[in-house]
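Notes from the pairing session

We agreed to fold both candidates in a single pass and log them together. This is the raw record for the first candidate, unedited. Please don't reformat it; downstream parsing expects exactly this layout.

Candidate A
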Amino acid sequence: MDEKVHSTGSAGASARREHERRRRDREQRTHEKHPRIGGLLLALQDHPQPERAWITGADGEEAVARTLQERCGSNVRLLHDRRLPGTRTNIDHLAVTPSGVWVIDAKKYKGKVEVRKPLLGQAKLLINGRDRSKLADGLAKQVDAVKAAAGDAPPVHGAFCLLDADLPLVGTLSFRGYQLLYRKKLTRKLNAAGRLSDTGVRELADALADRFPAA
């Protein structure tokens, strides 16, 4: 791109802080319970899966942010790791573009991605055979909050950006109205033409940055 895309916030920062908090708490508990051999026990044990999940999430958010920064045009404004006021939830990425606002949930999963639609009951989102349908509930809350803050003028879209997962080579999967995309395909959508002017993009991004501060 001729101009650098405007970006605010540090992707993955809150997830890394949570990982460090959990690691420190675990180490402190181990030393308190085993004063003499705590250091040895810590050196021999693996980090618990819930603790590793936070660093994996941070890595994914950072990877998505790098791609958006490299591939989005200068008329796209990016906000990373934003706090949802009054909750413990954060929004991984907000992209304000000529085509509207995109609420992006970055996920680093491996395995095949499927949307399974049974004859009876609701559709399910499966990743590597595991039911991940609840991810859409979290994204829906974020989208609703951004819609309330952005007003009626710009469309607000929700999307999952998946790293390492196996998406179909042809077509685009969607689940409950939210598209499941690789990074490059996501950036093509963010760079699409729209009715919002450069000034409108900038003003809306500034307003959303105030409404959703850095986490």
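Candidate B (folded immediately after A)
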Amino acid sequence: MVNSTQDATSAAALFTSLNAAASAGSSAGTASSASDIQNRFLELLVTQMKNQDPLNPMDNAQVTSQMAQLSTVTGIDNLNATLQALSNSLTSNSNQSMQAAGMIGHGVLVPGKGIDLASGAGMAGFQLPQAADIAQVSIYNSSGALVRNINLGAQPAGIVKWQWDGKDNNGVAMPDGGYTFAVNATQGANTVTPTNLQFGVVSSVTQDTNGVTLSVGQLAGITMSQVTQIF
């Protein structure tokens, strides 16, 4: 028979070591420490109950006390994880805010199909997943009518920037304003699907629960990850 007093003493000693392990695990940022402690504690508790003296069983108060200690350690571990995640989030948002603020007044390329014509000049881009033998840009006015076709020829994979002189296919200057564009690209007999990129100037930065977003030209809610190029 194993004396219950000895069991309680050894349990307390082992649980103390578990507490130390939990603290070390939390400091090291291990996500599995709480689960590991629970499993080891339950194994210890079952072993104690199996080997207790039937004439002098474990005191319920001992079990309750140990369960309370386990709950405390688990709670501390979860709290540490939550605080660490909050700290990381605040640091990340702060860094993003500083980076975004430095972009105000700069031109950027972001996903979009618009092109703004100002003083007879417009700029936009697109991103090719692979090289293209032929790349052609079609520009449309606000009514959806075709205004200009621009043949850019062969283009490599990656970001391609292009400019519009503001004239239609007949060489007539078009009025300043907002237009849209589409890109047709092919590699041999295969169609290459590009991602249209809209050019705009960053005018403001907003930080909310969703993170840091930019206002780019007429576009709002642009995330930092959507910015493909800065000018």
